[in-house]
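Z., the sequence and structure:
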Amino acid sequence: MKRLIALGISIGVLAGLWTVFALTVTSIGGWTAPFVVWIGFAAWACFYAAGGRVTGLTKAVGSTVSGLVWGRALLWAATQVKAGSAVVLGVFVAVAAFGMCVQAVLAPLAFIPGAFVGAAAYFGNGGVFWATLVSLLAGALLAYASELLADVIERGLPARSVPSSTTATA
């Protein structure tokens, strides 16, 4: 339970700060800030689902960014075909889905759900590449920070003693 409390505190604080930051910072030095809260949370979830620590960070970043690239390539290819039929789009989706699966032979891309999350985030964000990329990276880095912060909090929490059994025996 001690670990879950530490994670709850660290994730809660950082998730709240991420939300406020992403929703209030509209520009940085004249550059429009491309922060999308839900995309950050999706990458955050991928970090923990991929096992956390450095390995989870590597897999979350590698897989979600590759999915973003697959999504962009898919959308570009679909716009190059004049027919624009559902069948043509379905073929492009099938090729991209296949690619997102077989690329998992490479360690940084070995979290297949992350690739699908990256592609879905790209489409869910209206095909806006840079905002999706920045939000995916921010979410994965915040997830890593939340795990490190949880380590610190966990060490600071008092150990809870478990009373020995007091059941009477006959």
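The chain is about 70% helix and 0% strand. Strands lie at 27-28, 31-32.

Let me know what you think.
H.
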